[in-house]
Write a structure and sequence with these properties.
globular; 12 helices; about 350 residues
């Protein structure tokens, strides 16, 4: 069983590091929500994406014009553009977009469900300079297909992951949304990944937003979440696969053992996003009330420099259950995506 391994000195050093990162607030990871179209209809989708989206894909030139000032601000290859959706592989111009990003000095990668990721697309995207990929695999075959609501989604995702893992130049991971139906399958899923030479795995719980807001099958109890943390700790101790908990929440006594670094919600600090309609925000999963501007009438860099104080000065998050929490200075009120708006209580807390 896990024992309490809190290290006060390391936690103090981390708080200094976080304070410095916040003061500098370099924009080194930018999400581009390039489409709301999707070829799946997942039960937990936070954006409620559909095959035919109500918003048109953003023209790439609009996005490129918005980010060009970053070329002068930061050295080449230090800012990563994470292309997400919807399903970015539905864009026929995706490789052209990626190639142009590389020409302008940006690294880039995609977040995908893997349905359209075959060998031809793999080679095309690598040739365009793609450097990172995240693919979802949410349980064994029956469970994954249930969540993604498609009978071929597991097979296609695993095919994509095998291709991706075979390319040494790619940074990649498989992400698993842990919920009631797949919790008991985690050990078997671990063996499946290892058997297919997939070595980088990340777990997170499903936030009660979008389609998942009222689906009780997708929400874990506190006891179940703690069992997830124990599974991560045991797996990391084995050393057979690189497994970590995501950045979604502060975990209290588990901080030193469930991931490589302490919880740090970097939304608005190092992470920004350009949403499908041009809105400028931070992590694309946070509530739309935190939008700070729009590329069609604002300068992206001006917005980044001057309008993200709500995410960099988080004293307002010390409300509700956070107000009297002894761990507030370490957690700073939790992840931004678990707040419905300013001065709203956190939706849930995974501190143990």
């Amino acid at each position: 069983m896990m024992t309490n391994r809190r290290n006060p000195f390391k936690r103090w050093l981390f708080r200094i590091f976080r304070k410095n990162e916040t003061a500098i607030h370099e924009l080194n990871y930018l999400f581009w929500e390039c489409t709301w179209r999707c070829n799946l209809s997942c039960r937990h989708c936070g954006s409620d994406c559909k095959a035919e989206a109500c918003v048109q894909d953003m023209p790439f030139d609009d996005f490129l014009n918005a980010i060009k000032p970053l070329e002068k601000r930061y050295p080449r290859n230090t800012t990563v553009i994470a292309i997400t959706g919807g399903e970015p592989l539905l864009r026929k111009d995706l490789s052209d977009c990626g190639r142009a990003l590389r020409q302008h000095g940006f690294q880039w990668g995609i977040v995908t469900n893997g349905m359209l990721y075959d060998e031809a697309r793999h080679k095309e995207l690598l040739a365009a300079g793609m450097g990172s990929v995240t693919v979802s695999l949410d349980g064994l075959e029956e469970t994954h297909n249930w969540l993604r609501q498609h009978p071929e989604s597991f097979r296609q995702a695993l095919r994509a992951l095998k291709l991706i893992a075979s390319a040494p130049q790619l940074n990649y991971d498989v992400v698993t949304c842990v919920h009631q139906r797949n919790l008991a399958e985690l050990p078997a899923l671990k063996e499946t990944l290892i058997a297919n030479d997939i070595q980088h795995w990340r777990l997170f719980t499903i936030a009660p937003i979008g389609r998942a807001a009222h689906d009780k099958e997708l929400q874990l109890t506190r006891a179940q979440v703690e069992s997830v943390f124990q599974f991560i700790a045991d797996t990391r101790r084995e050393g057979r696969i690189d497994l970590k908990f995501s950045c979604e929440a502060y975990t209290g006594k588990y901080e030193e053992i469930v991931r490589d670094s302490y919880f740090f919600c970097r939304a608005g600090i190092n992470i920004g996003s350009v949403l499908i309609n041009g809105d400028i925000s931070a992590c694309p999963n946070i509530n739309r009330s935190f939008v700070q501007g729009n590329i069609y009438h604002d300068s992206l860099m001006d917005v980044w420099d001057n309008r993200f104080q709500v995410m960099r000065e988080r004293n307002w998050m010390k409300c509700g259950p956070c107000a009297k929490c002894n761990d507030y200075r370490q957690c700073l009120g939790g992840a931004m995506h678990l707040r419905e708006g300013k001065d709203q209580n956190i939706m849930r807390c995974w501190k143990f």
